[in-house]
Every structure is written in C-alpha cells, then in structure tokens.
Specification:
By secondary structure, the protein is mainly β. 11% of the residues lie in helices and 43% in strands. The chain has one helix spanning 2-15; strands spanning 30-37, 40-43, 47-49, 53-60, 65-70, 76-82, 88-93, 98-104, 116-122. β5 and β6 (76-82) form a beta hairpin.
Length: 130
C-alpha cells in the first residue's frame, strides 16, 4: 500500500510540471476563437504579426475535425482536435511573414476537401521577418 501511495505522489508531482496546456513563451498571448464546422473554419481573427504569440481556442459545432496550420510549403506547423462541447488550446507564434493555410485533418464528410481557412502574417513593427 505504501508503494502505491508513493507512486501516486510521484506521478502527480511529475506530471503537473509538463508543459501541456501552457504556453512556453509569452504570458499574454493573443486569443483567437476558432470554430470548425462542416465544411469550413470561422476564426475571430486571421491576420497576425511575426513574433506575436497566439492562443487558438479551438472547438467544433458539429462533428470532430482536425485543425492543422500549414506554411507556404505545405509543411504542418501546429495541430489539434476540434470537438463538439470541448475547447482545445493550441499555442503558436509565427516566425515568418506569409500566407498560411488551416486545413481539416480528420475526414468529416463529403465536403472535407474544401474545408480551409487562410491566415496572413505580416512583418512585426520592429521590422522582424524581412
């Protein structure tokens, strides 16, 4: 019984220090609401500056969706699940200006292939990202 209690305490104190659900960078990220629905995304904001930390609050109004952010070379930069009645937080900071695509990563119906959104990232005010 003592071994089980010790393992439980060790697990609790070890897991609480993992970085899940906490941004590793900024204390005050820009919060963006992302609503996935068949067959599109609604973002409360889709233009950002290079270096601006963002907390995407992702949910779904209908079925499960995968949410992936891709750069101009179609490389996956960040991803999370969009689920009905639940909000996942995805933290990301864009390092380069450009146009990024948001695509659904989980088959959600006949219009899945057209489920996209666009994010525009502009250089920061300090001239970064040129």
């Amino acid at each position: 019984m003592v071994v089980i209690a010790a393992m439980g305490l060790a697990t609790f104190y070890t897991l609480r220090d993992l970085p899940f659900e906490r941004p590793a960078h900024a204390a005050d990220p820009t919060v963006v609401q992302v609503e996935a629905r068949q067959f599109g995304f609604v973002l409360s904001r889709n233009e950002f500056r290079v270096g601006e930390p963002i907390a995407f609050q992702v949910t779904s109004v209908d079925v499960n969706h995968g949410v992936g952010i891709y750069d101009e070379n179609m490389e996956l930069l960040a991803q999370t699940q969009a689920m009905p009645k639940y909000t996942n937080t995805m933290y990301y900071t864009f390092e380069k200006p450009g146009t990024y695509q948001v695509l659904c990563l989980e088959y959600c119906g006949i219009g899945h292939h057209v489920m996209t959104a666009t994010i525009t990232v502009v250089p920061s005010q300090e001239g970064e990202g040129k």
